[in-house]
Amino acid sequence: MKAASVLVRPGSGLGEWPSAKILLGCLVGVKILIHLALSQNYGYFRDEFYYMQLGRHVADASTAMPLFAPLLMALNLAVLGDSLPALHLWPALAGAGVIILAVLMARELGGQLFAQAFAGLCVLVAPVYLAINSTFSYDSFDQLFWAAGLYVLVRLLKRNEPRLWLLFGLAAGLGLFTKESMLFFGFGVAVAFFITPQRRYYRTKWMWLGAGVAFFFLAPYLLMQAKLHWPTLTYWGFYTQRKTYPATPPEFLWFQILAMNPLACPVWLSGLYYALRAPAGRPYRPLGWTYIFLFLLFYFLKAKFYFLAPFYPFLFAAGAVHLEQQADRRFVRVATRAWLAVILVTGGLLAPFGAPLLPVETFRKMAAAAGKLVRIEHERHKTTALPQHFADRFGWENMAAQVAKVWRDLSPADRRRACIFTGNYGEAGAIEFFGRKLHPDLPQVISGHGQYFFWGWDGGSGELVITVGIRLVDLQRMFQTVTAAQTIQCSYSMPYENNLTIYVCRNSVIPLPDLWPALRHFD
To answer: What is the chain's percent helix, strand, coil content, to nearest 5?
Structure first.
């Protein structure tokens, strides 16, 4: 018995590891079950159509985004298909991975089973993770690789093992292969280590070798960017100046609090205090400063609020451990457990704002009653009672059917020379997906938006173009004849996708190949 107790350090959680495995299994099972059970509610999200097209083109065209998500989508389409459960399996697994890493970080920081459960449950019920893991996008995998990098840094700082920079480089590299925001995380880590005593790692080869590993994964993206004349620089300039919601400092902070569950705020604030001020958290000072730096950076860049979301699994883990360490009296222990129960209840109440849990009309009434108190703005588009991540799941099938009907009603000769031109990638992808199921011989859909611009005009002559999502005044400048054919209505969709008119346009004033460069846009 004595020998066994020597092998288990107090606060390590190792003696509870069998119980921790059961905890992990339960958390992971609940996470995956939630998203698969809700996967078919509300329909496809607009970006999922885009990713399906990226997956179909990834082998024969350069993409203007890192390749991880398009490659994974290509694999998904080949193996599992394009159903909603098939698409939503991957983000659910990524979200489960984030929970696992939060629990492991709490354990590595010395947390017992309660702290591990506290950290994992805070991540499980945070609305932002429920929302992001409900659809296929690179954000789910971005969060996973950030969490993996944070876990490696916790181990590195605790154990003083410089070789772990190689593993951090791998996590950062996979993140760079997924989304550009990993550059900000890497920059924040570099600054935070430089301003703390852990700057000594700059004098080792391992930190620089880790950076080399990360760059290896970044290189293909840089080569594609150079080939396409650096479209991401143009996109980010537009993104921060005209696309994202210009939150004030109080709004940006409130969005963080709301996204993570307001009653869980003291947990991650406790984690930030632990990393910045607590004696036990001294080794982890660089991680506390990384959060401060990234909060300020993302605010001043006017980035979307959820860019900071991948950092919170560490703060939840550190906060849970810090609270557990303070719970040395019975009253404090009871209060902490009661608080966790309240967090879970609040998480359940907020869950419909993250995941498609309720019938849409029920949720719309609930959201209208809640008003702006629980509304997060992350783009400048006007919204209805439905938040954008829900509104962008409605109206697509009807839009595709209406466009397909307009095309079908043309004469056979007109159908052969027609092309379909849309205002954005959501419209284009939806018409490709649903319209081609209705009519396999539907012409290729083109758009000047995002990656669609680089796929070109598909040989279209401009003699006859069916358009949707493009202003009449612009069409009248581009074509000799513009005729309204149908109006698309959907009260649940984003306002700019409602009451759209489908036009049949004939004889472009300028040949489509010559006009194409002017049609590129990012809004």
So the answer is: 70, 5, 25
**pLDDT tens sequence across 425-454:** 999 999 999 998 888 889 989 999 988 988
* CB-neighbour burial class of residue 420 (10 A; exposed 0-12, middle 13-18, buried 19+): buried
C-alpha angle with apex 303: 395 to 360, nearest 5 degrees? 25
Q: Are 74 and 44 in contact, with CB atoms under 8 Å apart? A: no
Contact of 401 with 435, CB cutoff 8 Å: yes
3-state secondary structure of 486: strand
pLDDT grade for 378, boundaries at 50, 70 and 90: low
Q: Give the separation between CA 192 and CA 276, rounded to whole angstroms.
A: 11
How far from 215 is each of 39, 133, 149, CA to CA, in Å? 35, 27, 15
Q: What is the pLDDT of residue 285?
A: 97
| 3-state SS assignment for residue 69 | helix
Strands (E), 356-463: 418-422, 445-447
Q: Which amino acid is at 88?
A: H
The answer to whether 462 touches 507, Cβ cutoff 8 Å, is: yes
* Contact (Cβ atoms closer than 8 angstroms) between residue 310 and residue 185: yes
DSSP assignment string, 195-256 = TSGGGGGGGSHHHHHHHHHHHHHHHHHHHHHHHTT-HHHHHHHHIIIIIB----HHHHHHHH
If DSSP codes are grouped into helix, strand and coil, which group holds residue 424? Answer: coil
